[in-house]
Inverse folding.
């Protein structure tokens, strides 16, 4: 423990401390200290719920094996004067909460406090070669230190837009009464009992948690290749603990007992932040359950006395469509040397230059994100090719499937208990194996197919996706891929067949086929689209030229 006592003209000295590792875990068991921390949080004008002692202390307790806790604080004659909750992450110091904490910042009673300057000097001495990276400083954070003093030469400070929706019941009500949204609500009501409500019971939250986590991982896995709950089992425990600390605002939109949209946001000081879990059902995407849920959430927040819904920094289009204003947050990086800062500046300048050039060519933010996505996928493909000792040919055309008509006996077919319909949980268990199709590509296509109205049948074995086949009806003219045969009216097509083990093709595919036929007895004809490499039983199928 490092202790620095600074003599002042006041009666009591100022005590500054940096605690590390076990010292932090012991300190956060001190109820008096936690009470002082809570008081400081309440009195700090720029504090967010991510700086509450309940948030940071629970994260420290759960993640101390992965991130070494570091707690910087200062007492003066009036009590706790400043605090910075951070952790060691390799070569960096990061805010407590890591990616789960949207805003990472120090707390002080007054904006002109010298605490952060003292803290930075102490951290430089204790961790001379580590960069301090705070994801986003919230609006109104005093940042003059990093612009007007010597710290500017070692600091990268970047402004980012923070979209915010001012909570307004009348605005949300007006939006929900618009013709297109009223029609979507009517269509959802035709499917069953449509209900919206807040989850107040811990037992209920725990009961629905896994379903929310699966929906979240599927959506973010498809969009960003990020399956947080699947990759990080502690994340569930952390969010459950936050619910117990009354730090989460949880709402769900249901049709009967099926959750079709949800939001689990961190809350505090009249704010709810879009950070935690945010989901909607891909199979009902055409009804926009996510947007409807947000508007209903706006009404709920107004009724409960909240004034702002923070949509958090990001270029997602729906955020700007919901935002009523944009505040300014900041990304902060304090480097160990001016040389490191210059490298970061040069990299940022190059990034902005290339971004500007692309935008002049007509490439917008969505185009830039798509470009980065394709680049990342190709890097993953190269790694797969190297590990599988195979060759990637970017000029090779996709093999056009052949179409086969099922002509076997349909009367005795039954549904296999091993086959699941539209199971996001199963799809998340996909592994590339010997294939060059990355998980990102697989989930991205799966999401687009579900949103287009297609269905999938899957089987799982030993915790891995064993097989998957997609069902398309003849009236679904818009195909997700380029293969779109003309099907006779009233028919069903099984396509995009995935089998983890080709040796199981006949047995596993038969289960999928029989289940598909059993689930759709109204379909007059059944077709299968398969490449030449795939074998279909000639006694049950005949080849068609469509």
């Amino acid at each position: 423990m490092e202790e620095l006592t600074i003599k002042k003209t006041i009666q009591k000295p100022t005590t500054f401390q940096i605690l590390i590792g076990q010292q932090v875990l012991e300190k956060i068991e001190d109820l008096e200290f936690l009470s002082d921390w809570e008081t400081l949080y309440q009195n700090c004008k720029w504090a967010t719920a991510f700086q509450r002692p309940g948030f940071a202390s629970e994260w420290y307790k759960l993640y101390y094996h992965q991130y070494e806790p570091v707690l910087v604080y200062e007492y003066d004659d009036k009590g706790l004067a400043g605090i910075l909750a951070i952790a060691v992450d390799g070569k960096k110091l990061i805010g407590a909460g890591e990616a789960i904490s949207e805003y990472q910042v120090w707390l002080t009673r007054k904006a002109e406090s010298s605490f952060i300057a003292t803290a930075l000097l102490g951290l430089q001495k204790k961790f001379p070669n580590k960069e301090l990276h705070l994801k986003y400083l919230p609006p109104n954070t005093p940042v003059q230190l990093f612009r007007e003093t010597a710290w500017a030469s070692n600091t990268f400070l970047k402004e980012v837009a923070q979209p915010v929706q001012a909570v307004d019941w009348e605005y949300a009500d007006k939006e929900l009464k618009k013709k297109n949204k009223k029609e979507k609500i009517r269509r959802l009501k035709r499917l069953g009992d449509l209900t919206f409500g807040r989850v107040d019971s811990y037992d209920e939250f725990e009961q629905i948690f896994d379903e929310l986590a699966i929906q979240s991982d599927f959506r973010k896995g498809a969009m960003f290749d990020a399956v947080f709950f699947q990759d990080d089992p502690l994340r569930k425990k952390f969010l459950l603990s936050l619910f117990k600390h009354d730090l989460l605002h949880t709402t769900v939109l249901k049709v009967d007992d099926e959750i079709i949209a949800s939001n689990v946001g961190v809350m505090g000081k009249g704010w709810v932040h879009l950070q935690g879990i945010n989901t909607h059902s891909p199979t009902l995407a055409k009804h926009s359950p996510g947007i409807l849920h947000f508007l209903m959430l706006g009404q709920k927040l107004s009724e409960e006395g909240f004034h702002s819904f923070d949509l958090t920094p990001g270029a997602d289009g729906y955020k700007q469509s919901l935002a009523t204003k944009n505040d300014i947050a900041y990304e902060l990086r304090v480097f160990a040397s001016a040389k490191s800062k210059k490298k970061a500046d040069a990299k940022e300048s190059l990034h902005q230059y290339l971004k500007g050039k692309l935008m002049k060519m007509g490439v917008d933010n969505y185009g830039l994100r798509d470009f980065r996505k394709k680049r990342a996928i190709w890097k993953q493909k190269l790694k797969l090719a190297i590990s599988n000792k195979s060759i990637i040919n970017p000029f090779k055309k996709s093999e056009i499937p052949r179409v086969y008509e099922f002509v076997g006996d349909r009367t005795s077919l039954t549904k296999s208990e091993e086959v699941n319909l539209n199971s996001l949980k199963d799809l998340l268990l996909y592994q590339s194996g010997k294939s060059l199709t990355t998980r990102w590509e697989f989930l991205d296509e799966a999401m687009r197919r579900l949103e287009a109205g297609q269905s999938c049948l899957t089987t799982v074995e030993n915790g891995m996706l064993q097989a998957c086949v997609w069902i398309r009806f003849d009236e679904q003219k818009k195909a997700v891929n380029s293969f779109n045969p003309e099907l006779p009216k009233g028919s069903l097509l099984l396509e995009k067949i995935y089998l983890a083990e080709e040796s199981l093709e006949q047995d596993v595919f038969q289960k999928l086929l029989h289940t598909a036929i059993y689930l759709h007895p109204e379909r007059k004809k059944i077709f299968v689209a398969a490449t030449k490499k795939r074998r279909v039983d000639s006694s049950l199928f005949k080849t068609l030229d469509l």
Remarks:
- The first helix runs from residue 22 to 27.
